Amino acid sequence: MTLQIRKTLSLEEVEAAIALRTEVFVEEQGVPLEEELDGLDPQAIHVIVLSDDRVVATCRLVSDGRLVKLGRMVVAADFRGRGIATRLLAFCDQEAAALGATEVRLAAQCYVIALYEKSGYIAYGEVFPDAGIDHRWMSKQIA
Asked: Where in this chain does the record put each N-acetyltransferase domain (predicted)?
């Protein structure tokens, strides 16, 4: 399996990333579409994982100077369990550092906190609901 991880190069790729997010968050997890589409996509950096020409994973970065918020990370159901999310996180950490960030922050669904911890993220604060799903804030200091 050959995978390519990179930033999107076209509006069509951003739309494919959003379509995958809709499939996972809205259709699989029941998140209301209006909550998934929060208006931040136009200002975000979208990162995709391609298998051939198919977007099989994605996430986005929203920069606020020294802080980058990573969000909307998903992996297609038939590609889960292959280490793709870990590779995607490593790529995003590098992108955040290139933007001049010193910290990456994300709101993790509680059932995947261990995935982020393996990549050096630290959970903090109380559990909170987002779109009816329990989350915790996590952060990672980067170079």
From this structure: 3-143
